[in-house]
């Protein structure tokens, strides 16, 4: 039984203009490193399906889904429509967003049913800034929230942990999941950085740790060990989703937490340990941020190597 590697060529057609950091090349940078390091030999590659409206509606409001579909489907060829100051769509964005959310659903199906031990989704657009009724921060559909809600609704999973180590707080995931008794969300992020929230959690199921700029590896690991791990031990998740963003890497200009590949390797080991203890090893990891192509590829490889047990 191989780990699942889920991606789709449609995810590369969405782009937000020249020099936008959330660029199509990100997926290739990830794929190249997984290939070069031999990790794809341990994984079964699958095409992401399109998420259905029913699946999306578990995380997003009907009015938002209708409005976004309407705007997205009317984008003229070779043009961009601005959604917020940093986020825009082209004619392929809607299809790409459906594939990214669909990847999380397929991953949930494979891992919850035991057809794959773990899954990594190499997808874009990312999702963790997409709120129930708002796109933003390069995100349109909240991929992990759609996957989590599918695992709960379709597979009857009672307790799911969402772990978000992107340098930015997953405000969209918090907005969707803060009152969900089936979910515990753990987020570590850089303070005073987009989306400028998270310091005050929206609900009791939110474990948010804001770290000061240039905190570095030690402070990050300490927050994981002292705050996340006790909460995860207490919650005993039956399945774990990861919002895997790699923009806290010291080579990435988007943030300043100064992490390195070894930190992503280490935090993945902690998550795998929890998953083996409580969740039958079941983990679904979805790509979020990470904008320096070289460190993104290397960091994902370090993460996936531990995730699939190839280390
Ligand atoms: Zn980010």
UniProtKB/TrEMBL annotation:
Family annotation (CDD domains): HDAC_classII_2 (cd11599)
Domain Histone deacetylase: from-to ranges: 20-307
InterPro entries for this protein: HDACs, His_deacetylse_dom, His_deacetylse_dom_sf, Ureohydrolase_dom_sf
Superkingdom of origin organism: Bacteria
A Pfam match: Hist_deacetyl
Family according to the record: Belongs to the histone deacetylase family.
Protein name from the UniProt record: Histone deacetylase family protein
């Amino acid at each position: 039984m191989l780990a699942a590697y889920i991606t789709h060529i449609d995810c590369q057609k969405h782009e937000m203009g020249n020099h936008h950091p959330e660029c199509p090349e990100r997926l290739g940078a990830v794929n190249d490193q997984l290939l070069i390091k031999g990790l794809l030999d341990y994984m079964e590659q699958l095409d992401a399906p399109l998420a259905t409206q029913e699946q999306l509606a578990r995380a997003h409001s009907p009015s938002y889904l209708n409005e976004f579909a309407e705007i997205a489907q009317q984008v003229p060829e070779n043009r961009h429509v601005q959604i917020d100051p940093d986020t825009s769509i082209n004619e392929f964005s809607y299809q790409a967003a459906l594939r990214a959310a669909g990847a999380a659903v397929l991953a949930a199906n494979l891992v919850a049913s035991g057809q794959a031990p773990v899954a990594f989704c190499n997808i874009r657009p990312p999702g963790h800034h997409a709120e129930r009724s708002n796109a933003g921060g390069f995100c349109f559909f909240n991929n992990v929230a759609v996957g989590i809600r599918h695992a709960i609704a379709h597979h009857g999973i009672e307790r799911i942990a969402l772990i978000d180590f992107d340098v930015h707080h997953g405000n969209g995931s918090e907005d969707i999941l803060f009152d969900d008794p089936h979910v515990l969300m753990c987020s570590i992020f850089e303070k005073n950085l987009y989306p400028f929230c998270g310091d005050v959690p929206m609900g009791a199921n939110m474990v948010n740790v804001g770290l000061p700029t240039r905190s570095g590896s030690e402070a990050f690991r300490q927050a994981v060990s002292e705050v996340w791990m006790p909460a995860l031990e207490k919650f005993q998740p039956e399945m774990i989703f990861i919002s895997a963003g790699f923009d806290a890497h010291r080579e990435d200009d988007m943030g300043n937490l100064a992490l390195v590949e070894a930190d992503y390797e280490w935090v993945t080991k902690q998550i795998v340990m929890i998953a083996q203890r409580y969740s039958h090893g079941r983990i679904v990891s979805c790509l979020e941020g990470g904008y320096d192509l070289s460190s993104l590829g290397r960091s994902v490889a370090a993460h996936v190597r531990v995730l699939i047990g190839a280390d």
